[in-house]
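Give me the fold.
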Amino acid sequence: MALQPVHRRSVPEDVFDQIVADVLSGEMQPGETLPSERRLAELLGVSRPAIREALKRVSAAGLVEVRQGDATTVRDFRRHAGLDLLPRLLLRAGELDLSVVRSILEARLHNGPKAAELAARRRTPALKALLDEAVRKLESETDEIERQRHALTFWDHVVDGADSIVFRLMYNTLRAAYEPALPALAVVMAAEVGRPQAYRKLAEAISAGDPDAAKKAAIDLLEPATAAMLAVITELEDLS
């Protein structure tokens, strides 16, 4: 357990970050017992209330089980944690986790067409103008990173149009995970965000209230770049 003394102003946040990092990296395995609050406070050079607050947060994230008067044990985050951990899993020590990238791409390809279908079924009068404006900005943008941001805005409107709280919350998490990696993904995403006509076709299908056409347009938009990116990930994993 490679814990370090805490020097940041937000002490519980720093403690939380260190424990989460050790759990997600496998440094602390499921079933392993954490040191006592007193021992953790000694190791980290912080107060016991700070440790207690951090452990509450780690427990709420589904990473440990805290029992009053008993030991705190590590849980299997794959079984107990939520999507809010996705940003931490995607970027570790400044590097992309390719397996997490793959999972995000697969979720995007699965959920995007369904969100587009629902947006077409439940479209509102205001949705057309929002989609058209997002496509217009995408068409006029030349910077690859900014193009990705305009594409995210487009999908923001699609997900809002779908009027599904589950899709909305899932998209929020996927976007939070994706945005810090925009520079790293600029090259592989160029083929997709560089096709504003595909976004235009999807926008028109949604605005026309045609669920089948919207679903197909979303697949046509997402599938080629997704397949290409998955192929790149496979090649990189084979080299590693």
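The chain has a mean pLDDT of 89.
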